[in-house]
Amino acid sequence: GSHTHEDGSVSTWDGAGNGTHTGADGSVSTQSADGSSTHTDADGNSHSMDADGNGSYTGADGSSGSFSADGSSTHTDADGNSHSMDADGNQSYTGADGSSGTMNADGSGTHTDADGSTSTMDAEGGGSYTSADGSTSTWDADGGGTYTNADGSSGSYSADGSSTHTDADGNSHSTDADGNSSFTGADGSSGTMNADGSSSFTDPDGNTFSSDAEGNESFAAADDPAAGGALDGAFGGGDPAGGDMPPPADDPMGAALDNAAAQSDAGAAGGQAPGPDSMADMPDPGMDSDMPKPEEDDQGGGAVG
């Protein structure tokens, strides 16, 4: 039979339970005895479903999709982006720009961007990332991680607050969980900075500056072989210059000691009074010396008595 409604829509049916309906707006629907159906609306969007509950649709804008009785589905939008999900809840997608990814029911997933960068995430919350420029990073569920930048710098960090970093030039720095830090420079310098306020620094020449927690500072100079030779000459009765080479021009302390020793030797040999104080023009080295100045020596031994 058939029936025309007051709004102009028309319905038909047969004895087996199949029917159709045409709306006044031009939409059309069908219904079958087995439960399957179709529908196309006035705008051209269509939808169908079979007797088992599986269906598909097409939008007037060009989008389309499908769905199954088991819960799986697909969808492609008008721009070409697509998405699918299986019966277990695992998903995947592909972007019109070339990007793609997965999202799994256990929480893990992947993503690849249109520029080639990639990222992953595991079910526990850890993951990794690689950018298009080659830099990489990783992280774990506990808050720790590592990274390497495109310029070659790299580092790591831990959930307890400790970390390390090495820059592209080879300078490195590390901090432990208690806030104590240390660093090593590419030039050979190094140092420490502790949570209690103490610190130390050793320059590339080996000179060390340090400060304790109370702010007291100290300095330790690197060994100076030239100065050591001069001291040997002054106190050992040998060559005052510490060898056949003259005192170095950039070692004023060593040169002063050499001159003092030479004048002392000359005074003792010739019975003369001490000459001018060669140390008088020297700046105070910042420490008391156990060595008396030349005028304090009894260098006129030959004339006494």
Description:
The protein is mainly beta and about 300 residues long. The chain has a domain at about 1-60. It is about 10% helix and about 30% strand. The protein has helices at about 225-235, 250-270, and strands spanning about 1-5, 10-15, 20, 30, 35-40, 45-50, 55-60, 65, 75, 80-85, 90-95, 100-105, 110, 120, 125-130, 135-140, 145-150, 155, 165, 170-175, 180-185, 190-195, 200, 210, 215-220. It has a 25-stranded antiparallel sheet, with no helix packed on it. It is rod-shaped, with a radius of gyration of 45 Å.
SSE inventory with pairings:
Blueprint: E1 2-4, E2 10-13, E3 19-22, E4 28-31, E5 37-40, E6 46-49, E7 55-58, E8 64-67, E9 73-76, E10 82-85, E11 91-94, E12 100-103, E13 109-112, E14 118-121, E15 127-130, E16 136-139, E17 145-148, E18 154-157, E19 163-166, E20 172-175, E21 181-184, E22 190-193, E23 199-202, E24 208-211, E25 217-220, H1 225-236, H2 252-270
Antiparallel strand pairs: 1-2, 2-3, 3-4, 4-5, 5-6, 6-7, 7-8, 8-9, 9-10, 10-11, 11-12, 12-13, 13-14, 14-15, 15-16, 16-17, 17-18, 18-19, 19-20, 20-21, 21-22, 22-23, 23-24, 24-25
Helix pairs in contact: 1-2
